[in-house]
Structure formats: structure tokens, C-alpha cells
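Issue 218. Parser rejects a valid record. Input:
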Amino acid sequence: MNLQGYCYAPDVSFQQERIFFPPCYVGVSSTQSFSVKNNSRIPLEYEWRVPEKYKYEVKFHPNKAFLQPNEDMPVMATFTPLKKKEYGVSVPFYVRNLFDQVKNSIGYFNPGSGTSVAAYNSRSSSQLGISTLRKDIQIIGAGSDGAIKISPDNLDFGTITVGFQKNLAVYIQNSSNCNLYIELKMVQSSQSDNKHGMTQG
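Output the parser choked on:
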């Protein structure tokens, strides 16, 4: 009788070992996508374990998932800085092989053969052939408070005839190192200004 089989240990790789995020305004989220590949010929289960102190600032989706043999899965990383500082976070990634209790049962491939040694629920992970692999990925980013400059400070339209319009330009400069999303709104002036028929934007 010739017996032939293959033995594989969990083996995964990241598209990149470091995920770089551009400086973000504090409280604003930024996302980056990358992939995780199962290089082995066995199904795997993985989980991201973000350190407790960064659990609100770094997230992965999916956080837990299954990887089929040779599968390449896209992952989305989200970075939301809550402080003005530079970040360098090492996030552990745990992966283990899946144990199929049915297919690994005695006599599954040849019904009636073999002898059961011990109940599976009473055997340890090592006895069941379950191994765990840890890898780490680096999250690099920074939190910024942002700053803008507006000129001129005041727009004076002067006296305009009813029914006519006048256009003036205002310049907004982002003087910070992060992307900013701005919205201009018209705000009513104080009561003292209203007495003179003035409004501010």
C-alpha cells in the first residue's frame, strides 16, 4: 500500500507591509486598500487585533474572514486620528488553519475504517493539527489641526441698484499639511448692523 499526502502550514502575505496615510484633519477618516493572500493550499481564518489604545483610530474591514487556498482578498484600512501627532501603529494579524471536524473524522473517506482515539472536543489545538501564525502590519499617518487663510477679510459691495448685481472675489488658502473640506454659509449679521441695512457672509 502506498500512502501519499501533503502537509501545509498557514502562510499569508500582504500586498505591502506598511500602509501610509496622508496627514488627516483630527477626527476625519482616510482609507487605503490593500490585499491579503493565502499562499498555502489549506483554508485559513484570520483576525486583526488592533491594540486597545488605537481601536477608535485604526480599523480594518473585514476584521475577520476566511481565506480559501491561494485566495487574494482585498482589505480596507481606515485611519481616523483623534490627536494632533504622528502615528506609527503596529497591528497584529493572526491567522490559523481551519479544522474540518467532519472531513477529518475517522472513516470519512473510507466508511467503517480506523479507530477513534479520543473525542475531538477533548483534544487540544496542537493535537488537532491547528497552528496559528502572527504577522504585523505598520500603519503610518499623522493628525493635523488644519489652518486656512481668507483674503480679503471683508467684502464691501458698496451701494448697488435694486435688480443689479456685483461680483467680488475671495481667496481661500489651505496653509496646513492636510486636505480640508470647507463649506461657505451666509450668516445674518448682528442687530446693530441690521439697523443700517447691512448683512455679512
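Fixed in the parser; the record now loads. The first helix runs from residue 191 to 194.
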